[in-house]
Amino acid sequence: MRIGAQLYTVREFCRTLTDLERTLEKIAEIGYTAVQMSGTCDYEAAWLRERLSLSGLDCALTHIPPQRLRAETEQVIRDHETLGCPYVGLGYWAFDDEKGMDFDDFMKIWPPVARCIRAGGRYFMFHNHDREFIPLRGKPLLWHLAERIPPEDMGFTLDTYWVRSGGGDPEWWISFLSGRVPCLHLKDYAGGGRMAALGEGEMDFDRILRAAEGAGTEYLLVEQDDCGGEDPFSCLRRSYLYLKARGLR
Length: 249
Hints:
alpha/beta, 8-stranded parallel barrel
């Protein structure tokens, strides 16, 4: 398993192409060898490929805006080919009836997109938050997504913090989704629901990492949406050192 940085953590330092280029350099300096592109400024795939190469980084996964995923699916696939990025991500779905984003809407919209992405040689990935643990007919929405959509069409970027926040056990869900979690978001859960650098909260990452290895996870993507006023690069560094001490790179 490889350690990557989710750039949403440092999104405030990725607002321009110049800032994004410097941020990639700083991520590589910490020791990360992969990134997830999310929350950054717009970029051309060829430009990003060159900057990643100069920094010695690979693009493991993206989060693409939903409207672009639907309207420009073929171009999204070509961009991922340019980047050498295997995983195309949907970062958020509200599962909110009032917003027209309920479970049935998801099932109408995203399986066809996922099949198109699979036909283009990439793999569609859905990222959970806590709302996916709302019960539907007695089981969490996340369970229904896994049951209704074939594994070959959609994987899950399971997020350890949001699983815990939703009342789930990250280790159990990683094992339940075995073979469908090539990318895992690692994020610690501290007292009162605060997000923390890895090893500084309450979560048992030794169990989580064993489950991830057994589930075939390829990329451990460190993310901290809210750094509580700390320098997010410092948070990413501490998380990296925590994983490095466990023999990961």
